[in-house]
Amino acid sequence: MGWLMSPFVALAIMVLWEPLEVLVLSPILARYGIIFGYESIKNSLSDIFFDVVGVAVGAWLLPIIIAPPLHLF
Fold first, then answer.
1. 8 A C-beta contact, residue 64 and residue 15
2. Would 14 be classed as within a structural domain?
């Protein structure tokens, strides 16, 4: 995502996904017997850490190797 859009927008989307996944989607899907988003705080924090790493690679390292095909935001 950091390759195709502003790193700050990409990171905001990815970080905001974590509470949405655990606090909103998981309870709704659980009503229908679908197990989704049951994560510990440690797992959510590690997801955010790797989101930061991925956005940094996509925003600053990947464009050096190859230009993005488009730029969204």
1. no
2. yes
| Alpha carbon distance 18, 70 (integer Å) | 26
C-alpha 23/C-alpha 4 separation (Å) is 28
pLDDT reported for residue 51? 94
Based on the number of CB atoms within 10 Å of its own CB, is 54 exposed (0-12), middle (13-18) or buried (19 or more)?
middle
Say how many domains are in the chain: 1
Which tens digit of pLDDT belongs to each residue from 3-58?
Answer: 889 999 999 999 999 989 888 888 899 899 988 877 888 988 999 999 999 999 99
Instruction: Provide CB contacts within 8 A for 37, sequence distance 6+.
Output: 21, 22, 25, 26, 29
Domain boundaries, position 30: 7-65
The model carries a pTM of 0.78
